[in-house]
Specification:
- A hairpin with a 6-residue loop joins strand 2 (36-38) and strand 3 (45-46).
- The chain has helices at residues 49-63, 68-71, 75-80, 83-106, 110-128, 136-149, 152-167, 174-191, 194-212, 217-232, 236-263, 268-274, 277-296, 302-318, 322-337, 345-356; strands spanning 11-13, 36-38, 45-46.
- The protein is mainly alpha-helical.
- Helix content is 68%, strand content 2%.
- Strands 1-2-3 form a 3-stranded antiparallel sheet.
- The longest helix has 28 residues, at 236-263.
């Protein structure tokens, strides 16, 4: 005898007789026959409790009630609500799902990101149709989530669909092209095709430069990824050159943010960026990699060490972690003092003074 579906607090069993004749309900996540429904919205269905819980944690609790007016449209409601208004509601859902998926990916929660990314793709197809360039952001989210889960076949499939959509759209935006090539480059690194990875990262940098400029931190990330490939090939002089460019860009960026912070009591831009722990950790890992590379290099480029350590000190000062800021600041000062009249010595000393009296400078993101 077939076991009854396990029902959670937010789900209930489907009563077949309550459904319209011939209506078949499919699981929100896997599209198999559904046996449960969300007990809150009653318009979303699941094959089992595991998928219901996964969807609830991943995205459904955020959009549960937003789905009701879209999925319960009758002839009367269609007369009251225009097609354009319905499309606007769906577009809002797409943006919510995209932001939730991106947030979970930045936190390393790849499994939890899947429901939001899947929902983003589903509504994107609903609005724009299949094989359109508007689906590319959702494909890239799904590719990144599956990359984190180690399912390279699915990654390749989603990126192939994204690439095909971009090829069919000559007027595709530069930002989309940049993100696509970055994702393709990362896939080729994992599969070991380093030459293909370099080609895609080169395109990533080109489109990032065109869209955001030469000194953008988006462009810097492309340089960093390319440097990693050259490191795998043992081409260390090229790695050093690329790391130098990454350090230069980040130093300019963080210096400007630090100047703004010390001159302004409140800065919403800083608050939104540096209150994000996941983003700080990602930048920290990149800069630490460069610092470790320079410290182990036989040439011991003191200027480069001072610059990168200063970047890390500024990053964590802006993030509110004064202990880390002091540690990296001390490393930066030591390196700069070994260079006669080095131009970073004074800014590093000034930052260390701020670290000693943090109460004089507003901060966010303390941990």
């Amino acid at each position: 005898m077939e076991a009854e579906p396990q029902v959670s607090i937010t789900a209930s069993a489907i009563i077949p007789l309550a459904l319209p004749k011939g209506a078949e309900k499919l699981c929100e996540l896997c599209q198999r026959e559904a046996r449960l429904q969300c007990s809150k919205c009653r318009v979303t269905f699941y094959c089992d409790a595991e998928h219901q819980q996964a969807d609830w944690v991943g995205i459904h609790k955020r959009i549960c009630q937003l789905l009701v007016p879209i999925r319960t449209q009758t002839l009367h409601s269609l007369q009251q609500t225009s097609h354009i208004e319905t499309q606007i509601k769906k577009a809002e859902l797409i943006e919510i799902c995209r932001l939730v998926a991106q947030s979970k990916l930045s936190e390393g929660k790849h499994q939890e990101a899947l429901p939001a990314a899947t929902c983003c793709l589903r509504f994107s197809i609903d609005i724009h149709g299949p094989n359109t360039v508007q689906l590319v952001p959702a494909y890239l989210l799904l590719a990144e989530a599956n990359m984190g889960l180690g399912d390279l076949n699915l990654v390749a499939e989603f990126l192939s669909q994204a690439e095909w959509a971009v090829l069919k759209s000559p007027k595709c935006g530069l930002a989309i092209c940049q993100k696509l090539h970055r994702s393709l480059g990362r896939l080729h690194v994992v599969t070991g095709d380093l030459e293909a990875a370099l080609r895609n990262f080169a395109n990533d940098i080109y489109f990032a430069t065109e869209e955001y400029g030469l000194d953008s931190i988006v462009t810097a990330a492309g340089y960093f990824l390319m440097a990693d490939v050259f490191a795998k090939q043992g081409k260390m002089p090229i790695v050093h050159s690329l790391y130098s460019e990454v350090a230069r860009i980040w130093h300019c960026h963080l210096t400007k943010l630090l100047e703004t912070r010390t001159q302004s009591i409140q800065n919403p831009l800083l608050d939104s960026i540096y209150a994000d722990k996941a983003q700080r950790v990602e930048v920290d890992e990149m800069l630490r990699t460069i610092l470790e590379f320079e410290q182990k290099d036989s040439r011991k480029d003191r200027a480069q060490i001072a610059q990168v350590a200063h970047c890390l000190a500024m990053l964590w000062f802006l993030g509110g972690d004064f202990l880390k800021a002091q540690g990296f600041g001390s490393t930066a000062l030591l390196a700069s003092q070994l260079i006669p009249d080095h131009d970073l010595t004074e800014p590093i000393q000034a930052l260390l003074q701020l670290v000693k009296i943090p109460h004089t400078v507003p901060h966010t993101g303390s941990e």
